[in-house]
Amino acid sequence: MKPDRTALRKYSLISAAILTTLALAITGCGGDEQKRAYAIPSNLCGITVDSDTLAPFLPAGQKISVKDKSYSGAKGCQVIVDSKLIFTTNQVWLDEGNTTAFVAARQSLDRPRHSADSGRFRYSEYEAFGKTRGCVDTKYKQELYTIMQASGSKNRDAEAMKRLIISYTKEVEKSAECTAGAL
After folding, report:
1. What angle do CA 164, 167, 173 make, to 5 degrees?
2. How far is the C-alpha of 86 from the C-alpha of 79, rounded, in Å?
3. What is the CA radius of gyration of the chain?
4. pTM confidence score
5. 3-state DSSP call for residue 43?
6. First-to-last C-alpha distance (Å) of the chain
7. How far apart are CA 23 and CA 5, in angstroms?
8. What are phi and psi of 124, to 5 degrees?
9. Model confidence pLDDT, tens digit, residues 46-64
10. What is residue 68's three-state secondary structure?
């Protein structure tokens, strides 16, 4: 007895479907696990950042761009992944005598519930604020503050944000922006 051609086609299609499913499962190409096709920046508008600490806030995607968004009295940067704003940094000169809590209250999208270094840093799961040391504009009597916001990120990680704002603020303290105000 000859096998039925329709039955053979069915078994062939089923076998092909099973093999395709197995191949996708083995290679991890099922579509659920996306990857970054871009390099994580190690510099945001002239300031070195810890790529490993920034990475959790950056999504999978194809293209990343870092754009300068500075204006009078503030140096800013935007991190855009696949045309979506994910992360921003700012360095802002404000009148002497302010506190990081004051800056956070005025600039925050939410209320940062955590603090470090006796209130010098305020942070939440997706944004952080810092006060530099020694970055004082003696002519205009202003101090330099740092701001980082990952409002476009789905990841929320207070400890990573804390590490990021502390390391970023230390790098700002070494920058020309800090020393320019002291002249």
Report:
1. 135
2. 6
3. 24
4. 0.80
5. strand
6. 98
7. 27
8. -130, -160
9. 999 999 999 999 999 999 9
10. strand
Q: How far is CA 51 from the centre of its chain?
A: 9
Which residues on adjacent β-strands are paired with residue 147?
Answer: 90, 129
The angle subtended at Cα 69 by Cα 65 and Cα 73, nearest 5°, is 155
What's the pLDDT tens digit per position in 110-155? 889 999 999 999 999 999 999 999 999 999 999 999 999 999 999 9
91 and 177 Cβ atoms separated by less than 8 Å: yes
| Nearest alpha-carbon partner for 55 in 31, 39, 32 | 39
Q: What is the DSSP letter of 96?
A: T
Q: Read off φ and ψ for residue 7, nearest 5 degrees.
A: -65, -40
Q: How far apart are CA 48 and CA 181, in angstroms?
A: 20
3-state secondary structure of 87: strand
**Alpha helices per DSSP H over the chain:** 5-27, 51-54, 100-107, 158-173, 176-181
Round to whole Å and give the CA distance between 177 and 15.
Answer: 65
User: 3-state class of 20 per DSSP?
Assistant: helix
Secondary structure class of 78 (helix, strand, coil): strand
Tokens of 80: 């855009």
Residue 128 parent element (H or E):
strand 127-137
Residues facing residue 66 across a β-bridge: 79
